């Protein structure tokens, strides 16, 4: 039955294989991840009354490993931001052991930070997007939030890996997600980007430095590095992702499924009115921005794509010299849950955009950058396919 946490729950949830790797683990899902026979409205009127016809690949693999699907949570419209999202609360409130949260600009990490949880945004392309009702194809990932790194590793071991039916997945090896933490196979050297500190208030810097102190006490070596282009992550993400979102949302036309406006005179009016009624204001503004860059200022979109490629190279070069980049996860005074405009959404996710733009893995760590009243979270952004190293580093901080 619907609740403040869940938009849909089966009366008698069933699990798959009893001897599977995730046997008995309760997993909460967002309603943009298709579960056959479940509502899949993705938090949007554009998909009202839509029911999934088949399981997403990640759902199929969870079932095959014996996981119990705890239900569909509430989520922001089509995964844009965290307004109204309750997915992390399902875990912190004891309704699930872990949750899958779509990460477009940092949603899984920020939601986990607010709820005092761990979260991993994996390397782009190692988890299938087949069956995901997506919005930004080149950035969105299936993030995993849980109360400890081992549960995240267990889930990732099941859901990651090549899907022959998802042709967008690159042909790359997948980490084995072992958490042995042996010397040389975990994070040792962590860098701080000076230009990131320039974006923070004095209070935010103090919180961040308290987290860095925890890293030092756990035996990590800290460095400081400059990155002149760090401030471009926001602009690049906003331009590229809004164009992709505008294109992706074009299929919600009121013809084949989802919301269809009533009391209209012809098909053209039905289409226009259905589109107008299908989206909330923040997402609608985001889609308008994307349409502008797509049809009126395409040069800006091309420039953003070129700059994105440069940012990818910059991060790869930096991570060739160190094992991870440390960043705060969220900012004091900028609530992702209350953000009502596109600008406010980006203000709230300013510190998580780098991993999304570059497709790198990032681990959100709770409880180390806190003053007892506010936990800003601490992110470790690692090299491509270094998830097991980041999770092993997280275990060191738990000791």
Structure commentary:
- The chain is of the alpha/beta class.
- It is built from 13 helices and eleven strands.
- An eleven-stranded mixed β-sheet has the order 1-3-2-4-6-5-10-11-9-7-8, sandwiched between helices.
- Helix 1 links the parallel strand 2 (26-29) and strand 3.
- Biggest sheet: strand arrangement: 1-3-2-4-6-5-10-11-9-7-8
> What's the alpha carbon Rg, rounded to whole Å?
20 Å
Amount of beta strand: 5-15%
**SSE pattern:** EEHEHEHEEHEHHEHHHHEHHEEH
The residue ranges in which pLDDT falls below 50 over 5 or more consecutive positions are none
Q: What percent of residues adopt helix (DSSP H or I)? A: 25-40%
Strand runs, count: 11
SSE layout:
Blueprint: E1 6-8, E2 26-29, H1 57-64, E3 68-73, H2 87-92, E4 98-103, H3 107-115, E5 118-121, E6 141-146, H4 149-159, E7 189-193, H5 194-197, H6 202-217, E8 221-225, H7 232-248, H8 267-278, H9 281-295, H10 298-319, E9 324-328, H11 342-348, H12 353-358, E10 362-365, E11 378-382, H13 387-398
Parallel strand pairs: 2-3, 2-4, 7-8, 7-9
Antiparallel strand pairs: 1-3, 4-6, 5-6, 5-10, 9-11, 10-11
Helix pairs in contact: 4-13, 7-9, 7-10, 9-10
């Amino acid at each position: 039955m619907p609740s403040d946490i869940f938009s849909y729950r089966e009366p008698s949830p069933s699990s798959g294989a009893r001897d599977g790797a995730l046997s008995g683990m309760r997993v909460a899902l967002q309603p943009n991840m298709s579960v056959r026979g479940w509502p899949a409205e993705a938090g949007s009127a554009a998909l009202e009354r839509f029911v999934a016809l088949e399981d997403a690949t990640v759902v199929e693999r969870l079932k095959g490993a014996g996981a119990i699907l705890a239900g569909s949570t509430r989520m922001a419209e089509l995964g844009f931001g965290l307004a109204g999202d309750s997915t992390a609360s399902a875990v912190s409130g004891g309704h699930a052991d872990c949750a899958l949260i779509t990460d477009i600009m940092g949603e899984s990490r920020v939601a986990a930070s607010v709820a005092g949880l761990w979260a991993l945004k994996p390397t782009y392309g190692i988890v299938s997007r087949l069956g995901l009702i997506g919005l930004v194809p080149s950035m969105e990932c299936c993030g995993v939030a849980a109360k400890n790194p081992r549960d995240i590793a267990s889930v990732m071991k099941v859901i990651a890996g090549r899907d022959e039916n998802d042709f967008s997945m690159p042909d790359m090896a997948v980490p084995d997600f072992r958490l042995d933490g042996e010397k040389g196979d975990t994070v040792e050297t962590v860098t701080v980007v000076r230009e990131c500190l320039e974006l923070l208030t004095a209070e935010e810097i103090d919180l961040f430095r308290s987290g860095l102190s925890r890293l030092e006490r756990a035996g990590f070596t800290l460095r400081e590095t400059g990155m002149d282009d760090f401030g471009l992550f926001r602009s690049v993400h906003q331009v590229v992702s809004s164009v992709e979102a505008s294109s992706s949302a074009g299929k919600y036309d009121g013809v084949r499924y989802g919301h269809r406006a009533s009391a209209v005179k012809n098909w053209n009016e039905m289409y226009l009115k259905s589109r107008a009624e299908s989206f909330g204001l923040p997402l609608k503004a985001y889609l308008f921005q994307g349409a502008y860059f797509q049809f009126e200022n395409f040069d800006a979109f091309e420039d953003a794509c070129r700059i994105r490629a440069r940012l990818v190279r910059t991060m790869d070069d930096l991570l060739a010299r160190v094992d991870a980049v440390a960043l705060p996860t969220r900012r004091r005074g900028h609530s992702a849950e209350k953000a009502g405009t596109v600008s406010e959404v980006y203000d709230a996710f300013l510190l998580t955009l780098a991993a999304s733009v570059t497709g790198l893995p990032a681990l959100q760590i709770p409880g180390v950058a806190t003053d007892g009243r506010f936990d800003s979270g601490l992110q470790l952004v690692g090299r491509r396919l270094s998830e097991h190293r980041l999770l092993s580093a997280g275990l060191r901080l738990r000791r």
